[in-house]
Amino acid sequence: MGQRAAVRPVRAVSGLLDHMVEYLTRQMASHSSRRSFAGRAGAWLTFGSLIPTLPVSRAFAASPAIQARGKPKPPTPFASQAQTTDPTACNYWRYCAIDGYLCASCGGGVHSCPPGTSPSPTSWIGTCFNPADGHSYLVAYRDCCGQDACSQPPCLGMEGDQPSYRPQANNDIIWCFGTGALIYNCSTSVIVGNAT
Length: 196
Known about the structure:
By secondary structure, the protein is of the alpha+beta class. It folds into two domains: about 1-55, no CATH class; about 80-195, Electron Transport Ethylamine Dehydrogenase. The protein is about 25% helix and about 20% strand. The protein contains three helices and six strands, in the order αααββββββ. A hairpin with a 4-residue loop joins strand 3 and strand 4. Residues about 60-70 have low confidence and may be disordered. Methylamine dehydrogenase carries out the oxidation of methylamine. Electrons are passed from methylamine dehydrogenase to amicyanin. Its EC number is 1.4.9.1. It is found in: Periplasm. Pfam families: Me-amine-dh_L (PF02975).
């Protein structure tokens, strides 16, 4: 007799929950159509599939690039051989995507044209890793035009080089159009901003 008395309250609570769920389901069904339910379910599924594409901080993505000493690992072969002291050498860190003669070796500077030449109004871009501070920078390369080519050996950096149908990242184009003289002399490299 004692067991039956203990089972009755459990059945009563279970029955009450059944009736409440049935009542709420019937209320929802009477106030909404199948189409609206399917539309809402589709919207939630679509929204749920977009969640991974939302912009989030991906600080953990940089962790494989950090070595045991805490120094950033160079991301490319050019960056592993790059130096920061001699801007007249082809392995200077800013020259990762340059193609041509260095203005620093031809009477100009890293970011200035030699006398008698003028910078092109357009440029191509590259992202170069600076081994001194461990950051990557967006670098704009401009051709200096108006005099014959410099007599120094050319440098060829291929990082990020794209085909000519992507001209903003193609280093094979002579960018002297718009300067009044289509004669190429040398190329400069100007840091535009931080790329990391």
